[in-house]
Protein 1
Amino acid sequence: MGAVFAWGGGDFLGGFASRRANPTFLAAIVYGSGLIFMTALALLNHSVLPSHRAMFWALAAGCFAGMSLANFYKALSLGSMGIAAPLTAVLAAAIPALVGIATEGWPNAVQIAGFVLAALGIWLVSRPEGGTETKGLGLAVMAGFGFAAFFLCIKQAGNGSALWIADFSRVTSLAVTAVVVMFSRTSFQLPRASFITVIFAGILDVSGSVFFVRATQTGRLDSAVILCSLYPVITVVLAKIFLKEQFTGWKLAGILAALIAVPMIAA
């Protein structure tokens, strides 16, 4: 559940800041701050470097995540966080979950029921309400496919140090977004308050990746992905509290369904 709170909080901070600056530039800062933070943490923890195979898959994961986060932030800035975040989460979870079932077999009946309830909860949270702005859904879809590829590559990284695997994934993510920023007409203007916000978003984002790596190392891929993909609940709640976004009975029902699904999937 650590990934749920970390990614949910990070997405809220990043999406909020993206309304004031270029999303690709913000994504580069997120990856840069995450890289610095996780490198320092791994070194202080004296973590053993993973194998070359694990490094390769971590770097590959970072390539897919690179532009996905920029697309995701752009989607959040264009429309409602309560729609873009869950839509991306559903797509990012569905593909790896199907791969996990295909490679590891069907989970038990209670977990399957939890999967269904979690999917229902995410759908209810993302259910468009009357008058809700739906711009940026195409970008949210693209981000969902990119994050799905990230999840699959992270699983292939194996059982090396979660700190280093998350750290190496940030290397290529930062490289991809930095290249786009350098070769595009991107504004580098960023208010001081927004810069601090994005730094914290980067720390939360990379921390969520560490939790996800550990989840895939200690359990099934489909269970880890579905559980970690409940993070939009945190994003939606924060958007309601701080941005006063529409929060109807359907969204409340979705949040409750997601909460009930957690112990069922973890069974």
Protein 2
Amino acid sequence: MTKPTLILDRMQFFGRLAADYQAMFGVTLESLKGKRVLDCPSGPSSFVAEAFAAGVDAVGVDPLYAHDAHELRKRSHDDIAYTVKTMATYEGAYSDLDLQAYADNKRAALNGFLADYESGLRAGRYINASLLHLPLDDQTFDHTFSAHLLFTYSDPASGGILTNSPFTLQWHMAAVIDLMRVTRGSLHLYPTTTRTNPARRHPFIDEIVARIEAQNARGQHATNSNADNMGVWKCRFEPSTYQRGDAAQNYLNASLVIERQHHRH
């Protein structure tokens, strides 16, 4: 029997550093230089700011970008404090995680984000939008990264952390298709394990991979209105070094890579 290691009653607005993205997805800013990259949802991560400074054409999308920097700072600080306080109540679940360092990391990411936010909004690096209807053209990005929304905020019964979660299996299917639509190269999703002890592969992932493979076999993505243009995709797991907490959370630690297959004629 599995046991939840974290349950929250609302979604949290805090982010991560570019170094965290490297650990989660196994990519470096150097390898992304000259590429067009999407981070969705981006939240108050400093990834877009750091990537832009390194010569990456990076764009972040989040529905909370409707708010100004002052509001986002307050919301993020409140959410960091709330999450760390809640994590501390799960005795033993985060024995390998320094919660003070965890909070400091989130605040550092927030500061990096806020330093770029207003100029980035004007330049189009930050877009106020949300899944499932991204206002982005098809095959716009070489790489798309999506962390700590899918699977994480599913309901606790499926291995997620959000009570009364609206993010059903059907929503996940539609979200992945929307992210695939705007991606011309590879889509990277993290995490892929449940927030339980012991951890297991999130059950929605098997369904999503099976759907993609079935659609490949049919030569189209029948669940999307642009199905005929979606192409053929290959799914694989990429080992991750990002530390989520204790050994139970790091078990099977990997990102899911969904890569468009380009065929020469």
